[in-house]
Amino acid sequence: MKLVNLWISLILYIFSGQEYFKTSLSVLVDTKAVLTCPPVLWPSVLVVAWEIALRDKPPCFGAYRRDTNQTTRGNCTDKRITWASRPDENPALQVDPVAITHDGNYTCQIVTSDGNFYHEYHLQVLVPPEVTLVQTEKGTAVCKAASGKPAAQISWTPEGDCVTEQEPYWGDGTVTVQSTCRWGGRHVLNVSCSVSHLAGNKSLSIELDKGVRTLGFPGSDLLIILCVKFSLLLVILVFVGFIHFQRTNDCR
Questions:
Q1: pLDDT of 121-149, one tens digit each?
Q2: Rounded to whole angstroms, how far apart are CA atoms 228 and 206?
Q3: Which CATH superfamily is domain 2-126 in?
Q4: What is the pLDDT of residues 153-170, one digit of tens each?
Q5: Using alpha carbons only, how large is the chain's radius of gyration in Å?
Q6: Domain spanning 130-207: which CATH class is it, in words?
Q7: 3-class secondary structure, 187
Q8: Domain coordinates of the chain in residue numbers?
Q9: Fewer C-beta within 10 Å: the chain N or C terminus?
């Protein structure tokens, strides 16, 4: 590997750099990413080299030398990172499928007879969170955006007394965000939880205290209504019984 790195470094040192591009790229996990090199005239190309620096890993290299039609690799063991096609036809790099561990910097270095050209990508892998919304007690709901990358943002409609916390998952870069919201004494029936994330937004709704206040009346008012209805029914039964008794006497 040392010989490969030395070979690349010597070639890049001979020529003065001319152009350097930087791009921030966000890619959804489990999809395919294709990273292209700077556009140059292919007959002037001498060497194409990719330098890859992933999070918490040593850099690795892949290079193509045009005059000998030779490709070399140094310390690159991830088989999901390959040339997009034949490097003598297209020196682009592909990552397929993208995993969380592919966060990092990818730099294409092209050495030509006219100078050096660079294109550096800062690749950020997006993981959509799993969103849930539940009621934990009367007038209280919990919205959770679990295992997302980066951390999601949570908002409520209508607004209440809310507390939002983050629970990091050490090792894979994902984060769980949980928001607990209370609407005590406000007689709120329906609430919505909106989760904003770079991988896509999602909104869930829930009916609070379902089955407890379906009529929208407090418990004492409901009891009064039932008593009134029972009293009216009793009066009707007495009235019908009285009429029946009168008709029976008339028949005699």
A1: 999 999 999 999 999 988 899 999 999 99
A2: 33
A3: Immunoglobulins (2.60.40.10)
A4: 999 999 999 999 998 776
A5: 35
A6: mainly beta
A7: coil
A8: 2-126, 130-207
A9: C
